[in-house]
Write a structure and sequence with these properties.
globular; 50 strands; eight-stranded antiparallel sheet; 812 residues; eight-stranded parallel sheet; single chain; mainly beta
Length: 812
């Protein structure tokens, strides 16, 4: 592993030298690198320009990220629209409780046509209704989750009507005592808005909002809202300041919003409609976020997102629904093409709202909502995680309409669509640490004639705990590959961004918060480190290290389906002409292990009859390698194709997903193979001959004797490096990731005149790869800085700790 360099000698290359970002150049160095491997940064001629948009954030309404998160509204279910079913109109509203009172939902005389449910309250003397904020299954005897601070002011507003004059008392209560309060007299049988400013006399994170009457009374309420006056940037209907400062720390170049699956809805009827989310909040239509399990008031709407991007100095990237839902609804994923006009128009109108002159219809709406100047939207994504022929057809329709009117708009596709030149494509990856370490070379050999890449969603989700150190380290290794290939990967964002404690729908996330506290996971700090240290131009960099040897793929075989019914027969495994396994099902399912699904044998055919996700059976020996698996398969119903597993061993799962992704493409799903898709679908009722050949570290994939794909197993390496030049600071920026369980000492060299001055080092590290931050220890795993002072030599030595992400900067 050592490399000795003498004065004026050329840098040798060997099998142990891994070159990243360019060819090795001659290097001038003094003798003295005797025992350490080296890192060689070639600074004489900077390479290509790194995309200034490389590191952004993806905000999705998930895990209460918006409603109950960055949106500063403190009252859950303020408009009483958050109900489980329409036929439950006569029930106490979600998130509200009562004391000595009866409260039921009504819709006979609503506040307006868009806000049709209100609360009818009948109190005994001293009776009240109570809201605890964003607490699950709240009742009036519980502690709340409103966070208030002593001396701070909170704006309470609500609409009310009553046949008789009623004096209401509104209070913030904490620890059984009133922390702030005020009276208001309501009267009249038409809706009126009332307001109070409540100044808290205590600091508490467990307060509640109470509205009571000293006398027996009946009245109606709607749009009960409590906002801190201190929002981020001081904006009305604004954002929670402490959480937004977390985003400022990430220095995002762009913000993708509002989803994600939130955009699609589980079915098209639950999709996000931006026009429902602008204007006065009481006029906005609520959206039930059925993918993630809670209601959204749309108070955090299209205008607020655009304003947030402007305040963050980040480019907005708006995701528009493309006429497709997240799951099969009423027998279809997509609306018919003859009903697509509304989706096309929504996209065009969204651009006009963001960018149009005030003389335009939607530009005038923007001005009316308080922002006469355009927001300058430049990026739009058409759909989210949609694919196949249905997507290609709808994408082309929307793309052509937008380009005809807004030719400079940058349009992002969920995948490469055949027969159409995509501007930018958006792959996603959620996987294990090993996969992320392996995938740091993913774009090294990417065809530069192909579309640019926005890697819009990625995270280590296996072996990641609730956001542990090894997840962040592995993601950092992957990010060095994105940065090293940023001539083609022009944008990227981690996902998801936020989770409110107690509202987990996805794990892990970058920022964890409750009503008054927050912390960043190691992944959050990695995002911050990379964004704050994005160079302007690449430098070639060479690292001397040990390359892991590829090993043969080995393991059992398996069959399965995803929301599909199928039949299988003539399964055979052969190695070197010898049959290792053969199943004609004459003895039923002997030799097979049922994992999931409804499996049975009839007439010599194995049938899977359920519509479940990820059905699976398993057979064989984990030591099998270099074999050929053949199987006949026929789809009998459902939405996709077949899942043919190979090389299954312990926790290693590998499968060929044939006709997956809404029956649009075929791809291998495994940590140690890239998920390169081949377009294709599976017909119902037709038998297919499927063959998978395992040859050492290579797999060959066939359908009906046609080779569709040949792939090599990815080689894992736990070190990653990239280097570049910060033109403004006139500094070299070197990033090094050590994913090993031991420290690594390197000698850093350059091809210039050596080092004069200090090297600033920022390191995120820890001895426990499974270590996590917490509310108790919010920065247990966070970057620490140090300085290597007064270097005056051709090289310097540095030790990178185990499980670490490191950023070095020095003057060029």
């Amino acid at each position: 592993m050592s490399r000795k360099l003498n004065s004026m000698m050329a840098l040798p290359m060997s099998a142990t030298a891994m070159l990243l970002g360019g060819l090795a150049l001659p290097m001038t160095a003094e003798a003295g690198i005797d025992d350490n491997p080296f890192i060689m940064v070639e600074t004489r001629e900077p390479g290509f320009q790194i995309s200034p948009m490389l590191y952004g954030i993806f905000f999705e309404e998930i895990n209460r990220a918006g409603e109950g998160g960055i949106y500063a509204e403190m009252v859950q279910n303020r408009s009483f629209e958050d109900k489980l079913r329409v036929d439950e109109i006569r029930r106490t509203p979600l998130a509200w409780g009562v004391r000595n009172a009866e409260a039921v939902l009504e819709n006979a005389t609503p506040l307006n046509a868009k806000n049709q449910t209100y609360l009818n309250v009948k109190t005994q003397a001293g009776g009240m209704i109570v809201n605890g904020g964003f607490v699950r299954n709240f009742n009036a005897d519980m502690r709340g989750a409103l966070s208030v601070a002593s001396g701070e002011k909170y704006d309470l507003t609500f609409y009310a009507k009553s046949a008789k004059s009623v004096k209401l008392h509104a209070a913030i209560a904490a620890d059984g005592k009133e922390a702030a309060g005020g009276d208001v007299v309501i009267s009249g049988d038409t809706w009126k808005q009332y307001s109070l400013v409540l100044t808290s006399g205590v600091t508490s994170a467990e307060a509640t909002l109470q509205i009571s009457s000293a006398e027996a009374a009946e009245f109606n309420l709607d749009m009960v809202s409590l906002f801190p006056q201190k929002t981020w940037k001081g904006r009305k209907n604004g954002l929670r300041a402490d959480l937004m400062e977390r985003l400022v720390e990430m220095k995002p170049a762009f913000v993708r919003f509002p989803g994600g699956c939130f955009v699609e809805g589980r079915g098209i009827e639950n999709r996000a409609i931006w026009k429902n989310s602008i204007g006065p909040v009481e006029q906005r239509i609520n959206q039930y976020n059925n993918n993630w399990g809670y209601n959204c008031s749309n108070g955090l709407g299209y205008h607020e997102y655009l304003q947030m991007c402007e305040d963050l100095n980040a480019e907005p990237l708006f995701v528009i629904n493309c006429g497709m839902g997240h799951q099969l609804q009423n027998g279809m994923y997509a609306v018919p093409m003859n009903e697509m006009d509304v989706f096309v128009q929504d996209a065009l109108d969204a651009i006009e709202y963001a960018n149009g002159d005030v003389s335009t219809k939607w530009g005038a709406e923007r001005a009316k909502n308080g922002h006469p100047a355009p927001f300058n939207l430049k990026y739009m994504e058409i759909g989210n995680e949609n694919g196949g022929a249905d997507y290609a057809e709808r994408y082309a329709l929307i793309h052509k309409a937008i380009k005809a009117k807004y030719p400079k708009m940058n349009l992002i596709a969920n995948e490469k669509t055949n027969g159409f030149r995509n501007d930018i494509i958006d792959p996603h990856m959620y996987s294990s640490p090993d996969r992320f370490f392996r995938d740091y070379t993913r774009y090294d050999n990417y065809d530069r004639k192909e579309p640019k890449v926005y890697f819009g969603e990625y995270a280590v989700t296996s072996g990641s705990g609730r956001g542990n150190l090894i997840a962040g380290v592995a993601e950092a290794a992957f990010m060095t590959g994105l940065e090293r290939n940023s001539d083609i990967v022009i944008m990227s964002s981690y996902a998801p961004l936020f989770i409110r404690e107690g509202w987990q729908a996805w794990n892990p996330n970058a920022i964890v918060f409750n009503q008054n506290l927050s912390y960043g996971t190691p992944s959050y700090w990695v995002q911050s480190m990379f964004a704050k240290n994005r160079p302007d131009r690449m430098f070639p960099v060479t690292i001397d290290g040990v390359v892991e040897k590829a090993v043969p793929v080995a393991g059992k075989i398996g069959l399965g389906t995803y929301q599909t019914q199928a039949e299988f027969k003539d399964i055979k495994v052969v190695k070197d002409g010898k049959t290792l396994f053969e199943s004609d099902f004459s003895k039923g399912m002997d030799g097979w292990q049922r994992i999931a699904g409804a499996w049975k044998v009839e007439d010599g055919v194995l049938k899977q009859t359920s519509n479940d996700n990820n059905t699976f059976i398993l057979a064989g020996d984990p030591t099998w390698d270099n074999y050929t698996l053949t199987v006949k398969a026929r789809k009998t119903g459902g939405s996709e194709g077949f899942l043919i597993s190979f090389g299954v061993k312990n926790r290693e799962m590998r499968r060929w997903n044939i006709g997956g992704w809404q029956n649009a493409s075929h791809a291998v799903e495994a940590d140690d193979f890239t998920d390169e898709h081949v377009n294709g679908s599976i017909e119902t009722g037709r038998w297919y001959d499927i063959k998978i050949e395992l040859k050492n570290d290579t797999i060959n994939l066939y359908i009906d004797n046609k080779l569709l794909k040949s792939q090599k197993r990815l080689v894992g390496q736990k070190e990653a490096v990239t280097a570049g030049y910060d033109e403004k600071a006139k500094e070299v920026v070197l990033k090094f990731v050590n994913g090993n369980d031991h420290d690594m000492t390197y000698t850093v060299c350059t091809d210039s005149n050596g080092f004069i001055g200090n090297v600033n080092v920022q390191t995120l590290s820890g001895t426990d790869p499974n270590g996590e931050n917490s509310f108790r220890e919010p920065e247990k795993y966070a970057p620490k800085t140090r300085v290597i002072r007064d270097i005056r030599d051709s090289n310097f030595e540095i030790t990178f700790p185990a499980y670490s992400v490191n950023v070095l900067r020095w003057k060029r």
